[in-house]
Write a structure and sequence with these properties.
Blueprint lengths: L9 H15 L2 E4 L10 E7 L5 H16 L2 E6 L27 E6 L6 H11 L5 E4 L29 H7 L5 E2 L8 E5 L15 E3 L4 E2 L8 E8 L16 E10 L5 E7 L10 H14 L41
Parallel strand pairs: 2-3, 2-4, 4-5, 5-12
Antiparallel strand pairs: 1-3, 6-9, 7-8, 7-10, 10-11, 11-12
Length: about 325
């Protein structure tokens, strides 16, 4: 039976329109341009309330889609009622079910307490044997309140079992400390000894960022440092290395085997300050790491194209300092 629009109650028309619009506005999708990544789907998760992941992550997605051909879907922490991007909304990241069909998860979250129906998608992906790329605060991605009845509370960053929660179990470390002085001492990255020829650092002659070096304990599992971070005396790339501060890993690779029994490739970096992505060397490291995670290191160019796509002027870092009133559609490639 075919209905004319006039035959459908006005309330039903409004509900249909609202449903369609709200679903389309919950995440940003970048169709892959021609490139080696064509046919691969990368889901990028932004949910950090301090370092401007809500701006860094969509820019990274645009670079991967436009210059390398990956289909990219960007998920954001959002206010449930309005759909506005708000990294302070620690209990809502719509679209995580899309991880089921992802080839790679890029995660940049901080102290989230997601409801079970959302968190389950992250853990299912974690157990699938598919690769993971984590940035900065993903080492302390989750923080469920004490006494939480969630079946996923054990993944809290302070957990005793597994020790260090999801971050240490999967990525290799949890939150430890600021090793460099926060907002005072920036980071210079150099390949770790013996890793100068690794494909992840190919073409990365200048890895620098305003992020401070994070402190670490001993990296877990089979972690291997790829890039060491040197604390600089100031916030300019020309500032000298601080005397007496030994370099520590700021990027490493490891594997993770979940319940599927399949071994996943994992890349983690403690860089991820919104300003870090303004560094060509940092952008190239992340793009190269995407290829490596997907087992595509043979296709990494000598100097991967990492030009910024559109305007990238992130707000200053700090809790509550995000741009207001934006929705995923505002991050479209223009």
């Amino acid at each position: 039976m075919i209905f004319q629009l006039s035959q459908i109650p006005v309330t039903a028309v409004i509900l249909m329109a609202t449903s369609t619009l709200s679903a389309a506005d919950k995440w940003a999708t970048y169709t892959g341009y021609p490139g080696p990544g064509k046919g691969k789907h990368v889901v990028l998760v932004a949910g950090d309330d301090e370092y401007r992941s809500e701006e860094l992550i969509p820019q990274l997605g645009k670079i991967l889609a436009k210059h390398h051909g990956f289909q990219c879907t960007v998920l954001f922490a959002q206010i449930k009622k309005t759909g506005e991007i708000d990294p302070g909304a620690k209990d809502n990241i719509p679209g995580l079910h899309l991880l089921k069909d992802a080839d790679l998860m890029v995660i940049f979250t901080r102290f989230r307490a997601l409801p079970n129906d959302q968190m389950k998608h992250i853990i299912d992906y974690t157990n699938s044997g598919k690769p993971i790329l984590g940035l900065r605060t993903a080492t302390h991605a989750f923080d469920y309140p004490r006494g939480s009845k969630s079946e996923f509370a054990k993944y809290t960053w302070t957990s005793r079992e597994p020790k260090g929660g999801w971050g240490r179990l999967v990525l290799g470390e949890t939150w430890v400390s600021h090793y460099g002085r926060h907002n005072v001492e920036s980071t210079r990255g150099k390949p770790a000894p013996g890793m100068e020829g690794h494909p992840i650092v190919r073409g990365c002659e200048d890895i620098w960022g305003p992020s401070d070096v994070y402190g670490l304990t001993k990296l877990s599992g089979d972690s291997k440092p790829v890039v060491l971070g040197y604390v600089l005396t100031g916030m300019k790339p020309s500032d000298p290395i601080k005397p007496g501060k030994k370099p520590v890993p700021i990027a490493w690779i490891k594997s993770h085997t979940g319940t599927s029994g399949k071994k996943a490739r994992v890349f983690t970096t403690t860089m991820g300050h919104g300003g870090d992505l303004q560094s060509e060397g940092v952008r190239r490291m992340l793009v190269n790491a995407t290829y490596w995670c997907l087992g595509m290191e043979a296709k990494i160019p000598q100097r991967a194209k990492v030009n910024l796509v559109g305007e990238y002027k992130p707000n200053k870092i700090g809790v509550g300092g995000h741009k207001r009133g934006l929705k995923p559609a505002d991050h479209a490639i223009k």
